Amino acid sequence: MTHEASRLTPPSPRRGGRDAHALLCHLVAILLVFLALPAHAGTLGRAGLEKHFPPPLVVGERDDRIPVWPILKQEAGAYEIIAYAFESIDFARIPGFGGTAPDLLIALAPDGTFRDAKVIAHHEPVFLEGLGSEPLFAFVEQYVGLSARQPIRVGRPNARAAGAAPATTVDGISMATASTRVINETMLAASLAVAREKLGFGAVNTGLRVEAKPDYAPLGLAELERRGWVKRWRMTPAEVDAAFAGTGLADPDPGAPDEPFSDLTIAYLNVPTIGRAILGEAAYARLMREIGPGAHAVMVVSSGHWSPLPDDFVLGSVPDRLTIQQGGLTVNARDAAWERRDLAPDLPAGPWTLLKIGDAAGFDPSAPWSLSVKVTRERGQIFPEKIAREIATEYRLPPDLFTRAVPDEGPSWTDSWRARASELGIIAAALALLVPVLARHDALVAKSRPFGLFRLGFLAFTLGFVGWTAQAQLSIVTLVGTVRALIHTGDFGFLLYDPPSLLIWGFVLVTLVVWGRGTFCGWLCPFGALQEFCAFLAKPLRIRQVTVPPRLDRALRQVKYAVLAAILLAAALGSPLADTVSEVEPFKTAITLYFARSWPFVLYAVGLLVLNLFVYKGFCRYLCPLGASLALAGRLRLLDWIPRRTECGSPCQLCKVRCRYGAIEPSGRIDYPECFQCMDCVTIIHDPAQCVPQVVARRRGRRIVPRPVAAE
Amino acid sequence: MRSPPRPARRRVLLGAAGLAAATALGGTAAFRALASRRGLATRTRAGLAFGTVAALTVAGPDEPALDAALDDGFAAIRAVEAAASLLRPDSALSRLNRAGYLDAPPADLTAMLAFALDLARRTDGAFDPTVQPLWPLWSEASARGEKPEAAALRAVVARIGWRRVRLTPERIAMEPGTALTLNALIQGHAADRVMAALRARGIEDAFVDTGEFGARGTHADGTPWRLGIADPRRTETLAAVIAPFTGFAATSGDYQMCFSADRADHHIFDPATGRSPRDLSSVTVTAESGLLADGLSTACMVLGAARGRDLVAGFPGCTTHFIGKA
Fold first, then answer.
1. Per residue, what are the HEC states of A366-401?
2. Of A133-147, A191-205, A249-263, which one has max mean pLDDT?
3. In the CATH hierarchy, which fold is given to the domain comprising B92-174?
4. Is residue A599 included in any domain, yes or no?
5. Any CB–CB contact under 8 A between A700 and chain B?
6. Looking at A19-28, A71-80, A210-219, A511-520, which range is the least confident one?
7. Mutation target among B23, B25, B53 for the A interface, most CBs of A within 10 A
8. Residue B23's closest chain A neighbor by CA?
9. Shared-domain flag, residues A623 and A500
10. Number of folded domains in chain A?
11. By the CB < 8 Å criterion, does A318 face chain B?
12. Is the residue at A700 inside a domain?
């Protein structure tokens, strides 16, 4: 009675992970050797620009500090500035969907409107060979006439016709959401960078509007001071001497020893509780009216021995001993020439200034800022050498005193996540359903017919919803972008713009470690699903599968690794060839563009589907670079999860013969890198009517009790 | 005295540069025929400088040499800007104004400042580079639709005086509260520097417009350069034409940056009063250097026609064109 003869091996830890890891390390090492960084800079130059701005326009001499060319027009002997032209890549290098930053030619008129916008270079896969570049060109054309002073967002296709604000919205392109967002960000970031330099707007917090809430509480000065809303800043002579330590310079005009060096009272006046306590209700209202919306007022009263507001301080000027700083930048603040008599009588006497901070300064009063004073001491008599030291104090108000309005609701990648929340939910639910089905071998998988129906249903979902609807066909292009980001740009932000794909990528990376590549290739690849459905045509068409001789089969399987290596190498070298070779994938043709593409691509994709009728999933097994990468990474798999019996392979060859992927060796061993997790062999092994050892045992009147054994 | 900035500066000298550029670009057949008979090509390049548009036109037989000359011309302009443009916070002059002193000043700055201090001495302070503190006072008041209060004006005028500046080749130092502007000279000096750079490249025919003007040789077709002086009240019409024009010319006028609609208050200040001089509408001076032409034209605006003529008479080879206030 030897029951040991027939044993099931349950999922067991696998060996060989270390080798695979070494292999990967090797591959990464090889890629890193090719750290040839291509120069990413504008390429047009004067001659190139003159083609875009022909006479009567004149391309002026390039700015000597930044790569910006004035575009001039000559009229009656005088030149007029039409625009400032520049290439976006010199100012904003935002990696596109393929990992390479697009380059746009932008001409910004002196008033901040876009006079011209053209695409110089881009590597957006969806446009390159798919939709063609015309929709992209048309997309960029939309900016002409819009103003860079306002945040511009990409709406849905036809958003403008559907009533979106035409000054702040451009129509998006379906199937190219991620790419258009990158173009939009590039347009705005580059233009604001140039506007900051040439047009005097485009501060850090552009678009952000922080305003004091209208709430008023009648608090006295003492209480405001206690809360720090009115700040009293007393600097001792010792603190100032410390700032001049090492210079050997003493205070030329020391006050009494117990007298503070300076004594400043600082207050942000826009908050009604503070402003009205200091100015009174009427003067507060007058001040707010006078400085206008979006501007800020800060009061500084100096009552100490030394004053940052000297006697020769000119009303209405920018004080040179007082600066307001925020986030490392100096905020432009100018004396507002306001009457002293409006001031609360209980404030200290002394010189004072009411500083106005303009709307365009990008000042955020809800965030901490600092006031610094410049103290100067002199060395020498006739030509004294001046030595200045800046000493600063921080001022902060509780953020809940303010409303913060960000015109564009958050950075644009969060938009895409919000907009696709329902798709994400459906895909997440499907994945949550898939996991237990695949994990529990004795449940649905063991029931041949219901499981077959489940599989068909799921594949239909993968093709119809994941692929054609949600556009979440994973692709080698993402890997190319990642390699480019890793080596060249360091910016992985592009991954965030395609939430459904990112969700599936996350899921695939987890299942890769548990089950191997099969979870994606067999269940979540829309093109794989399409092939599987096409394969049903083989029988009615009386097409017989071609048996690939084992040696040729083994050789062909290696081709996909060569394709992968070529693509990754090209990506690592920064070569555009990576995009070309990536066209080995028919995914864009078949899934992204629904076969609406130029005929060579359609012919290729359809050809692969026809090939599939003769050699089942020939593309997946022999050519697919994404499959190859997953197969490589799948070597990190932790579980040998397909149950085996000792009879498997010797003598039983049923599963090997029935495996449509050739992933079971004659020995019965599973070739996991080739396994598509179709579960056929798992179903067989759990089916007493199919599994040969079980059938034989039953005929002999025995029952086989599956028992776990250690892995080989 | 001029102060920065000069946005939307209107052109008052026109004609030659414009005609040259227009013909070079548009290329009338007759012009091309004449030019090619002389074997000369023409190149014009414009660019932004000193808050306005500068344009250089050169003619010569060797086209690559023309491009190289234009490169050098603009490099000279950038060097002058880096030395003394108040539009650039990082220029040597801006740094000097902030710190009150400057070690190892660039040669462009010392050359202009030495000339400015000398002219200030010769005009007894009618020309004075230390009027800069008047600028924020007037522009602020103007932004509010007002004029500066007399008291504030007096306080600022007290800080004006060219003797408050000490210049040595190694160091410039100023008394506290002093600020300099060389806007009255910077474009004329730039014209000198550009012309020198073009000559060093062997250019014989050139027309330089840096905001002030310089010319050498003739048009590519052999016709002389002409310089039109526009009517300050109707800048589209010419009040006079200087032809043939070689050497340098500079114009100061009340039309460029005005603080009042009647043009009584503008960007040229009388250092003694802190207000604009009332006599003239515009003065054009031709001289053998741009620096001299530019300085004299500003000084004449402050001095008025009679004393201005006396001043210019002390500089041989200079001519003046005065246009009084209407």
1. CCCEEEEEEEEEEECCCCCEEEEEEEEEEECCCHHH
2. A133-147
3. T-fold (1.10.3980)
4. yes
5. no
6. A19-28
7. B53
8. A77
9. yes
10. 4
11. yes
12. yes
B298 is in an annotated binding site: yes
> Would residue A174 count as lying in a domain?
yes
Burial of A66 (0-12, 13-18, 19+ CB in 10 A): middle
The set of residues, in sequence order, having a beta carbon less than 8 Å from that of A361 and lying 6+ positions away, is: A203, A296, A331, A332, A333
Distance from the first to the final alpha carbon of chain B: 21
Asked if A232 and A378 sit in the same domain, the reply is yes
B contacts of A70 (beta carbons < 8 Å): 46-48, 53
Q: Is A166 in the same domain as A283?
A: no
In the listed set A179, A198, A217, which residue is the last one of a domain according to the structure? A198
- Whether A167 and A222 share a structural domain: no
Q: Which residues of A touch B11 (CB under 8 A)?
A: 77-78
A429: number of Cβ within 10 Å: 10
pLDDT in the model for residue B2 = 44
Per the annotation, does B294 bind a ligand? yes
On whether the pTM is more than 0.80, the answer is no
What is the ipTM metric for this complex?
Answer: 0.80
Report pLDDT digits (tens) over A469-509: 888 899 998 888 888 888 876 677 777 777 888 999 999 99
Residue of B99, B101, B140 with shortest CB distance to A316: B140
Examine residue A670 and state whether it is found in any structural domain, yes or no.
yes
Q: Hey, is the C-beta of A111 within 8 angstroms of any chain B C-beta? A: no
Residues A221 and A249 in one domain: yes
Res. A359: pLDDT tops 80: no
User: A647-684 burial, b for 16+ CB within 10 Å, e for fewer?
Assistant: bbbeebbbbbeebebbbbeeebbbebbbbbbbbbbbbb
A548: domain range? 420-639
Of A639, A674, A698, the one marking the end of a domain is A639
Q: With contacts defined as CB-CB under 8 Å, which chain B residues touch A81?
A: 48, 53
How far apart are the C-alpha atoms of A417 and A41, rounded to whole Å?
32
Residues A163 and A244 in one domain: no
Q: Do A72 and B140 touch (CB under 8 A)?
A: no
From B143, which residue of chain A is nearest by alpha-carbon distance? A316
Q: What is the mean pLDDT of residues B45-61?
A: 91
State the first-to-last Cα distance of chain A, in angstroms, to the nearest integer: 23
Task: Assess whether A132 and A244 both reside in one domain.
Answer: no
pLDDT tens track for A57-73: 889 999 888 899 999 98
Total number of residues shown for chain B: 326
**B210-269 per-position pLDDT tens digit:** 999 999 998 888 888 988 887 777 766 777 888 889 999 999 887 666 666 666 677 788
Residues A242 and A143 in one domain: no
Cβ–Cβ below 8 Å for B177 and A320? no
* A497: helix, strand or coil: helix
